[in-house]
Amino acid sequence: MPASETLTLAFATFLVAGLAMKFWLATRQIRHVAGHRDAVPAMFQQTVSLAAHQKAAGYTIVKTRFGLLELAFGAAVLLGWTLLGGLDALNLSLRGWLGAGLIQQLALVAGFALISGAVELPFTLYQTFVIEERFGFNKMSLKLWTIDLAKSMVLGAAIGLPIAALILWLMGAAGSFWWLWAWGVWMGFNLLLLLVYPTFIAPLFNKFKPLEDESIKARVTALMKRCGFAAKGLFVMDGSKRSAHANAYFTGFGAAKRVVFYDTLLAKLSPGEVDAVLAHELGHFKHKHILKRIAGLFALSLAGFALLGWLSHQAWFYFGLGVRPNLNGPNDALALLLFLLAVPVFTFFISPLMALLSRKHEFEADAYAVQQTSGQDLSTALLKLYEDNAATLTPDPVYVKFYYSHPPATERLARMAAA
Ligand SMILES: [Zn+2]
Fold first, then answer.
1. 253: CA distance to ligand 1 center in Å?
2. Which pLDDT tens digit goes with each residue over 348-397?
3. 258: helix, coil or strand?
4. φ, ψ (nearest 5 deg) of residue 261
């Protein structure tokens, strides 16, 4: 069998197997949550009401069901781009119009991004204005949503086009080790983004005000000092502008680190609970989880760029995925897009490993928080957050293994109680 046919067969097989697996997992999750809908689990009978438990079940089921629809649609779109010739047609028509060269390459990337974004829009709209709305989470008006979209597009073009142009140029001009250069540029770009995100990008979408509540401020400052942690500032973000979901996070690097609390979080938690949630986040820092994640990202992208460097010179890579390469000119944008489309099809089956690592980190951060603050506060804070986000307390165990970056509440609270 020619290499291109082998690739087509492997791609189709992985796509179908992945789809079947995802459908099986989702139906398991729906059945499991529905089956446990009528009773609050024994360990939460004192703390969670039946109404809250049932709301979480309803929300989880509706979202998972909608996920099935997105899954089927996403697979159809992926096939449309690849084996059914969508990317090929876009590429040829742009080449006919712009000729072969960097401009055409860039137009292909931009055209692909625009079409993909447009195709996903109805799903985002439905998710926000039907599902989130129905469960009382959406706080966005259609106007705000549209403004957000416009801002993201301008921002995406302003940031995305130059970096895409630079990488495409390197692919064509930097010789056979272009992928090493491109990797360096990509990593530098990611670090720069981490650096400018909190101060330049996030404020385009939300307002950040210094934390004013003196009692929380005093507690949080004392906690950070106790943990040997310096941050440039404590901020409150108007998360309630868009959603009722609550959160807290760290951003930035070194001394420029800042702590951001959603106003929705401060409204729901007691000062002790805020402390405990922050201590959990500090735990991620103490255990160097962020650093490990960035190092992992560096290593994976290096492997990815090296693979792309090799694949982009193999004619079977293009033909096998439904695209006719230009035999007398550059195919860099094609290679890049095909690679981005095909890789997730093959890597889905290692997602349980990634999820496992992430859940391990969450347990470690919880353990740190229990050492530094009150385990009781962390437990009640987590329960409040699970309840506020309508996260189910009874997920399907196999579904958890594949998708959950955070362990289910039962496991987290059981570990905390044991500690
Ligand atoms: Zn965490």
1. 18
2. 999 999 999 999 999 999 999 999 998 899 999 999 988 888 899 999 99
3. strand
4. -105, 135
- Orientation angle between helical segments 3-35 and 332-347, nearest 10 degrees: 40
> Do 266 and 239 meet the contact criterion of CB atoms below 8 Å apart?
no
Nearest to 116 by CA among 157, 64, 74: 74
Residue 97 buriedness (CB in 10 A; 0-12 / 13-18 / 19+): exposed
Ligand 1 centroid, distance to 284 Cα (angstroms):
7
Q: Mapping DSSP to helix (H, G, I), strand (E, B) and coil, where does residue 138 land? A: strand
| Calpha distance 49→54 (Å, rounded) | 9
| Active-site residue (options: 281, 362, 364, 411) | 281
- Alpha carbon distance, N-terminus to C-terminus of the chain: 58
CA-to-CA separations, 332 to 5, 70, 159, 169, 419, in angstroms, rounded: 22, 29, 19, 9, 54
Contact between 186 and 167 (Cβ < 8 Å): yes
Residue 384 bridge partners (DSSP): none
Tokens matching residue 169: 């140029």
Q: Which two tokens stand for residue 72?
A: 């089927």
CB 160 within 8 A of CB 190: no
Using CA atoms, how far residue 212 sits from 179, 216, 260, 372, in Å, is: 48, 8, 13, 23
Catalytic annotation present for 281: yes
For the stretch 214-241, pLDDT in tens is 888 888 889 988 888 877 788 999 988 8
Nearest CA-CA partner of 116 in 161, 67, 70, 81: 81
pLDDT greater than 70 at residue 269: yes
Q: Using the mean position of ligand 1's atoms as its centre, give its distance from the Cα of residue 44 in Å.
A: 21
Residue 365 CA to ligand 1 center (angstroms) comes to: 6
